[in-house]
Amino acid sequence: MSMRLLQLQDLTVRLHGRTLLHGLDLTLAPGEVLGLVGESGSGKSLTGLAIAGLLPAGAEVSGQVRLAGEALLALPEREMDARRGAALGLVFQEPMNALNPLMTLGQQVAEALRLHDGPHRPAARAEAAQAAEAALARVGLPGMAGRYPHELSGGQRQRVVIAIAMALRPRLLIADEPTTALDVRTQAQILALLRELVREQGTSLLLISHDLPLVAGVADRIAVLQGGSLVEQGPALALLQSPQAPATAALVAASTLAARGPAPALPPGPPLLDARALVREYRRGGGLLRRATVQRALDGVSLTVQPGERVGLVGASGSGKSTLLRALLGLEPLQGGEVRLAGQAFTGRERALRRQVQIVFQDPAGSLDPRWRAWELVAEPLALLDPVPERAEQRRRAEAWLARVGLDAGMAERFPHQFSGGQRQRLAIARALIVEPALLVLDEAVSALDVSVRGQILTLLDDLCSAQGTALLFVTHDLGVVRAATDRLYVMDAGRLIESGPTDAVFRAPREAVTAALLAATPDLARVLAERAQARPAS
Fold it and tell me: Which residues contact 94 (CB under 8 A, 6 or more apart)?
């Protein structure tokens, strides 16, 4: 048996009288990649937090967590804090919550280097700044040390978090959904980087994810959680080819989304959403002796969405997708062009039109007030109705929508921090749907959901569009979701729309090299397993 770098023995976690993890036994060898998978709420992230000593207040933990033979649960907080970053690296699911908005990227990486003792700690601030530049370049962000987190796309922010976690070359890296916010090409780059770290430094990687095709491509072994219990573990290829536990078989079955059938006929008439020649520019720098530079994030973008139509928008991280969404919703000022909703000019300030368009943002934690209970968050848009429903009616409607997106009505009194990342995204979806908008805009709306819940949400969106004629604009890096959920597709690159057409036609015969590259990089479970099976005899 190989030496164990990480060992969990009978790890049990209780919170407020509920047992959330039931006696987990797991090991991880030096240089090994272990994929920890399961549905949202199964205990994946909680396991990572328990290892890192970051469980919420009031949590009771028992059992053993050993890193290189050292019992972590017995360490005082000050000593455990010294292990984080140096011996134990962490990459969290929601990067904006892990970055300081008042510090530049270079300062944040350099801070991580300077705070911890070890062989890789820089001796001076200048050396730390230089090492920070190199760390950012290594994750694909050269020359960006002087920027702030709000200037980056979601995928770029996640790469900064990975740079911080890898800066001191930890022996164990816990990556909780490290590529959730990334487009498929950047996913491949980041996973290649993580594999390189494991190979070069003997670092162990605990990869926590709901994305089974992604895990299948990099993990040596896979462990499956359900309801806080370990239901199956084993070599990745054997486990996925012949799953023994029903939970594993269900995850494998749900990991492949079928393409949509023929697009339904739409009634003739003007578009519901009509964006014409949109231009959005950002000015950077400038001063008494320096001219400001102008970056054009949107360069003459035009698109339409018909009533009841389902439209996809895809592109690499930083291509301008989120900027375009904010411009469509009146959240970004435009230097040119016009947005019209239902035939009227729309800037986001027209109260009569605001109910007609709702959005689900990429980062659920950032869009949910942490002081409000779940039902209050879901009911918030009802204030747009005239008349506004009574409070009791608001709660009734909110609980009904919680059930429709797969959350128990008994969760209505919980606060956002008491939900998993996937559950918080379902809260955001319920909040957007409760006023039955004419247009639903979704920015990576299912990126944080496990595959089975993703299918439920896509079915719910399909039912809503069909029953109410609701149009859908789906922005995502997940081309499998786009193919399953949309009838027409736009492809964006460098602030421009470079290709459009029926979704199936674009998938079958992409005209642009950028589109073809995105399709080629999209993880596919059957393809990954076939490639690994073919490579096995040579290993």
Answer: 363, 364, 365, 366, 421
